[in-house]
Design goal:
The complex is a heterotrimer.
Chain A: H1 4-7, H2 12-42, H3 47-51, H4 63-66, H5 73-81, H6 84-115, H7 121-133, H8 136-149, H9 156-180, H10 184-192, H11 197-225, H12 228-234, H13 241-247, E1 249-250, E2 253-254, H14 256-276, H15 278-285
Antiparallel strand pairs in A: 1-2
Chain B: H1 8-12, H2 15-28, H3 53-58, E1 64-70, H4 73-80, H5 83-89, E2 92-98, H6 100-112, E3 120-124, H7 125-132, H8 140-143, H9 164-169, E4 180-192, H10 193-207, H11 219-234, H12 251-264, H13 290-305, H14 315-323, E5 329-333, H15 337-340, E6 353-356, E7 378-385, H16 391-404, H17 407-417, H18 432-435, H19 448-455, H20 470-485, H21 491-505
Parallel strand pairs in B: 1-2, 1-3
Antiparallel strand pairs in B: 3-7, 4-5, 4-6, 4-7
Chain C: E1 28-29, E2 35-37, H1 47-79, E3 81-84, E4 88-91, H2 95-103, H3 105-136, H4 142-149, H5 157-168, H6 174-181, H7 197-221, H8 226-234, H9 239-268, H10 271-276, H11 288-298, H12 302-328
Antiparallel strand pairs in C: 1-2, 3-4
Helix pairs in contact in C: 1-12, 2-12, 3-7, 3-9, 3-11, 7-9, 8-9, 9-12, 11-12
The chains are: A mainly alpha, B alpha/beta, C mainly alpha.
Chain lengths: 292, 508, 340
């Protein structure tokens, strides 16, 4: 509507509408960016500086927000004293591990599902996706018990498996759609030429590889941002960034500077990854229901 | 600041052993910090009663233990400094820390399922001790065992501050002792002496007495102070609010908050049971009686003159509000003094804050014929031993429980990161007496007069309620009191609603 | 992305009657029923190969079963017991459910609040999301702005909760200061009053998840058939009429998918709610998953918790069936599940 060809025939009412549109989008932009901006700026503030706030209604007081000595001590504190290097690594390992496991298992399963037909396939398929819809809180108690009996609590392996509970069904569901789009004729031709089934399967992988890569990243994103699993299954030996950040809300002192710094550390890589797979985001976030 | 969890088990395992433990795969992946699960090892060299103390301490050398703790200062400090214990015993201890709710979850599942992933548990008195009392080992067995070393100051009730051993160690019966006091949080009054002195003349003109805090200051006085500050604010003066409650989302401290008012007036408690023991079947609650309804009305009045963000601030946030200089007084746990006295984070630091016991009951507010006391509530975190563990593991765990609560350890924590001793003997350690006066290098010591010399003694100290359903009880109190303060229901209906829900919870 | 673009039905391989009598591969059938790729005779995809496919499926299916079916049956078992901390487990039949449905005010309240919460979030997210998408669609700023708008979605909900907590704080929160300065709030912060706490949560959800609706709507707008628009224009419809008569009906399946997904996510994710309010004050934000969290992990009433969890699961599964139905329905055909 706000496109160029319309603007050319601008009437006064149209012009007002255009201004309104710009204002609206600007306000929405501000609304989107502000919390992230505040997080970033606050991560550079001392606690007492962060406490400073102008009197109610004193609009010029907004300047107070920018009136501080930037300090990187919260960041150094995180990595030097608080071991965030390890938590960062845990987050990466758990997220990446579960993404790789999910996409590997998911791809073979999805491929098979795409290429064969059997009684109850539809139900099986629904069951697969329903495991991802289950509220985490609902199944946490039994899951914890299972993980504990497997000696997986507090370890990265446990966390990887825990994340697989939601990443694997996601991967199967999405990747099946991918394989459905690849005509069986390609494999068939390969097999006629004497390729084994496995070789035929591998031959079509390059066709779906970019998509698989994108959903691998998406699996990383889901796992990285998880909090409940990480706090219950992972904490202890495999503390991840969101959990470690929440833990900075300590008895005695809420270390807001460090919390905001940790927020930046946790969020930035994911924003970057989000941009990277921007094209696949909508497909991934709607479980493949919508494509761009 | 003080948190460096270097996976203790892992670090000291020699490379070969590490590979045996299944770390090979981890190394191959470059996953240097993959934890080795929560497995334990126990090795034992038998000793006799006549053996040397050193042999007794060393009898479990090579053993590995896991301690699940809330993220409180002593655990951070002890984790930083485990070497003396390792040198003394040869035992490796891994200390895991988490939020209290997460600790509750994990400890609960561990204990209940007959496992012993965590040999040592942080037994926060009511939230963890009361529900899981039966799952902790009876420490009396170890205290009387002469094949174990013993602390020279003893582990009996006399070694600790009054009531402390009862609060976290005694649940429902004196036959069993489930925990030793590990750290403590006892309520006392933090107030801005600078502001009180500045405004006292004006206050006296209006109310006819001086604005100051002593052990005889009553809840009625607190109301007057808060009202006075609120009026000053309304008149446009730049003063903070006079008072605030802990009625934010943390249910336990919200209950402890109102408990102080209730107990101050005739030692009112919610159940007709021995407060020191508690009960698994506490019977019908007293909520809904005349006392409770009257005091609920007073609670609501206090809320009306308190900081307006009462329902958003729980204990931790409230302390931040005080640090930011937005309230002139808070009833707070003495472990928070260190953060208040820290110039880097607090505007109430540098001699502005003084400490006093909790407010006393107002005689005319007492409806049950009891006495007026300085109702003082508490959370005493104990260290207990998982009864599911094998006998040898339990004995090894006892060594750590004893060491971690020894006066030397507590003294080091006090000097280092704050900390709140539970052993009487710490008071006589070098420098502690001096630290109770300004200038001080142990800010928590500024509260010791109000807490250890007064608040924790009978008849002021309230221990309970020790009931298995303590955590659900807290949530009921929090929700209903919030409804009352926010004007959704009147005090009488609030108390009756609490009564109905609590009795239903206890199958009455 | 797959290089080969084939039009097709929503969920392929859903041939009625289970196994195809002649053992053929599911065909690639377009929406108007024209077969693009011929079904393949059994001879080309022989019986042994099907076993092969099952082997390929097995690892994933077994893993999933272990981590989902087992907990599920455990949940049912617990819901029928009084899983008592002190006394041990006791069979109680349907007593846990009876309690929920007869005298547990927090249970019914929790459902009510969950629906209220989701409805409020979704109303504003759809309203804002569609508006923004329509304004941005094919404009020169589309690429840049959408990219920026996406940022909140990438933030972990737990971190978002902490950041918003910081903004809302009555002592040092800048949003609180702003709302106070424009007269929206008094000194009580937004999370500190039962009458506004829910709004506080809704705002966070809107901030984080409106971008999803924007994305979905943009995808939908790209798929509004040109010919329909043009036909309507020829009939003299203006832009606004066009929007309501042509665009919106075409967007409907997209929006429905967005709404269902968000609704189910509100069941799943309570990270930010736990951090922001924990269900309070005065139960004003005690949505069912939060209450469930309390019952299971704070009170350790595992039996009652399991009963609550099962009701949540059942509703989730019903919603999920709806979702899959929409994927399948003719109306959603051009949602483009299978378009590259």
């Amino acid at each position: 509507m706000a496109s160029k060809d319309v603007v050319e025939y601008a009437s006064p009412a149209r012009r007002i509408a255009n201004v309104a549109v710009v204002v609206f989008l600007a306000v929405y932009l501000l609304w989107t960016i502000l919390p992230i901006f505040v997080m970033f700026v606050s991560s550079l503030k001392d606690l007492l500086e962060a406490f400073r706030i102008p009197a109610v209604g004193d609009w010029s007081g907004i300047a107070l927000f920018f009136d501080f000595e930037p300090t990187f001590k919260h960041y150094t504190n995180l990595f030097v004293n608080l071991n965030f290097g390890v938590y960062f690594f845990n987050s990466v390992a758990a997220a990446l591990g579960s993404a790789v496991v999910s996409v590997t298992l998911g791809a073979t399963c999805a491929y098979a599902l795409s290429r064969t037909e059997f009684r109850g396939k539809k139900d099986l398929f629904f069951w697969i996706i329903s495991t991802r819809m289950a509220p985490v809180v609902a199944v946490m108690v039994p899951l914890y018990a299972i993980f504990r009996s497997l000696e997986l609590v507090g370890s990265l392996w446990g966390l990887i498996l825990a994340y697989t509970t939601f990443n694997l069904p996601f991967a199967i569901w999405i990747l099946k759609g991918f394989f459905d789009n690849v005509p069986f004729a390609i494999e068939e031709a390969q097999m006629v030429d004497g390729a084994t089934r496995m070789q035929a399967f591998r031959s079509i992988l390059p066709l779906v590889a970019p998509g698989i890569g994108a959903f691998l990243v998406l699996c990383v994103l889901f796992a990285w941002n998880d909090f409940l699993f990480a706090s219950i299954i992972g904490s202890g030996g495999a503390k991840t960034l969101p959990v470690a950040t929440k833990e900075l809300v300590q008895p005695q002192n809420i270390q807001w500077g460090s919390i905001m710094a940790a927020g930046v550390v946790t969020t930035l890589p994911m924003m970057f990854l989000g941009l990277l797979i921007r094209r696949y985001l909508v497909t991934g976030l709607t479980m493949g229901a919508v494509r761009e | 600041m003080f948190y460096v969890p270097k996976n203790a088990i892992y670090k000291r395992i020699p490379r070969r052993k590490f590979l045996e433990l299944g770390g090979g795969v981890a190394t191959a992946l470059g996953a240097g910090s993959v934890a080795v699960g929560l497995s334990s090892v126990v090795t034992r060299s038998p000793v006799q009663a006549a053996s040397s103390d050193d042999a007794k301490w060393k009898q479990y050398s090579g053993t590995k233990l896991v301690f699940m703790s809330e993220n409180t200062p002593p655990s951070f400090a002890i984790r930083e400094n485990l070497k003396p214990f390792y040198d003394l015993t040869g035992i490796e201890v891994e200390i895991l820390t988490d939020d209290l709710p997460v600790v509750q979850q994990k400890v609960g599942i561990d204990l209940r399922s007959g496992k012993a992933d965590f040999h040592l548990n942080y037994v926060q008195d009511k939230p963890i001790g009361a529900p899981f009392a039966d799952y902790f080992a009876n420490l009396n067995d170890f205290i009387n065992d002469d094949t174990l070393p013993q602390d020279p100051d003893g582990m009996g009730a006399d070694a600790w501050f009054e009531n402390f051993l009862d609060v976290c160690g005694t649940m429902y019966t004196r036959d069993r002792l489930i925990a030793f006091p590990y750290d403590s949080a006892v309520a006392c009054t933090f107030y801005r002496q600078d502001l009180f002195e500045q405004h006292s003349p004006d206050f006296e003109k209006e109310y006819g007495y001086r604005m100051e805090f002593t052990k005889d200051t009553t809840w009625k006085n607190v109301y007057d102070f808060a009202e006075f500050f609120k009026k000053l604010r309304a008149a446009g003066q730049d003063v903070p609010y006079g008072y605030a409650q802990h009625q934010g989302s943390f249910a336990w401290t919200a209950q402890l908050d109102i408990q102080r008012l209730m107990y101050a007036h005739g030692q009112w408690t919610e159940f007709d049971v021995d407060d020191k023991l508690g009960s698994k079947e506490p019977g019908p609650t007293r909520w809904g009686d005349e006392s409770s309804i009257f005091l609920m009305e007073k609670w609501k009045e206090l809320a009306s003159v308190a900081h307006p963000d009462n329902l958003a601030n729980d204990t931790l946030q409230l302390n931040t509000v005080y640090q930011a200089g937005q309230i002139a007084m808070q009833v707070q746990y003495h472990e928070f003094a260190a953060s208040i006295e820290d110039e880097k984070t607090s505007r109430a630091a540098g001699g502005k804050t003084a400490y006093a016991p909790c407010p006393k009951g107002e005689a005319s507010w007492i409806k049950n014929g009891g006495q007026a006391v300085n109702g003082t509530s508490c959370g005493i975190g104990g260290i207990g031993i998982n009864n599911n563990a094998s006998d040898d593991l339990k004995r090894a765990a006892y060594l750590f429980a004893m060491w971690s609560t020894s006066k030397e350890t507590q003294y080091n924590v006090l000097k280092g990161v704050g900390g709140t001793p539970t052993r009487k003997a710490v008071m006589d350690m070098p420098g502690v007496k001096e630290a109770r006066q300004r200038p001080t290098d142990m800010p928590n010591a500024l509260t010791f007069d109000a807490v250890y010399d007064y608040g924790i003694k009978d008849p002021h100290f309230v221990l309970g309620p020790k009931i298995p359903e303590a955590n659900e009880y807290y949530q009921i109190i929090l929700t209903e009191v919030q409804k009352c303060i926010s004007g959704q229901q009147d005090p009488a209906a609030t108390c009756e609603s609490i009564r109905d829900q609590v009795d239903d919870m206890n199958d009455i | 992305m797959a290089t080969q673009v084939l039009p097709g039905g929503a969920l392929r391989g859903d041939a009625p009657g289970g196994i195809n009598p002649v053992g053929i591969m599911p065909g690639f059938v377009t929406r108007d029923g024209v077969t693009v790729l011929e079904a393949e005779p059994l001879a080309r995809n022989p019986e042994p190969s099907r076993r092969y496919y099952f082997y390929m499926m097995a690892p994933a299916i077994i893993t999933l079963a272990a981590i989902s079916l087992y907990p599920f049956f455990w949940l049912i078992w617990m819901s029928l017991h009084d899983v008592d901390i002190m006394a041990g487990d006791k069979w109680v039949g349907l007593k846990n459910f009876e309690r929920l449905f007869t005298r547990d005010a927090k249970f019914s309240n929790g459902w009510l609040l969950l629906i209220q919460y989701s409805a409020m979030c979704l109303f504003f997210e759809v309203l804002l999301g569609v508006l923004i998408a329509v304004l941005l669609n094919r404009s020169r700023w589309e690429k840049v702005l959408v990219t920026v708008f996406l940022m909140p979605m990438m933030m972990a909900p737990a971190i978002a909760g902490l950041v918003w907590y910081y903004l809302y704080n009555g002592t040092f929160g800048w949003y609180h200061w702003f709302m106070q300065s424009v007269g929206l709030l008094g000194e009580t912060s937004i999370l500190g009053s039962p009458s506004t706490a829910m709004i506080g949560l809704v705002l966070v959800d809107i901030w984080q998840w409106t971008p999803l609706i924007v994305l979905i709507t943009l995808a939908g707008l790209k798929r509004v058939p040109r010919d329909q628009l043009e036909a309507n224009m020829v009939d003299g419809a203006g832009e606004i009429r066009n929007f309501f008569q042509v665009v919106l009906p075409n967007l409907y399946p997209f929006l429905l998918i967005g709404i269902l997904l968000r609704f189910m996510d509100n069941f799943r994710f309570i990270d930010s709610v736990l951090i922001l309010t924990g269900g309070g004050p005065a139960d004003a934000t005690n949505i069912l998953p939060v209450y469930l969290f309390d019952v299971s992990f704070q009170y350790f009433k595992l039996g009652r918790g399991a009963a609550i969890a099962l009701t949540l699961l059942v509703v989730t599964i019903i919603l999920g069936m709806f979702l899959v139905k929409i994927f399948d329905s003719p109306a959603a055909r051009n949602v483009g599940r299978t378009e590259g």
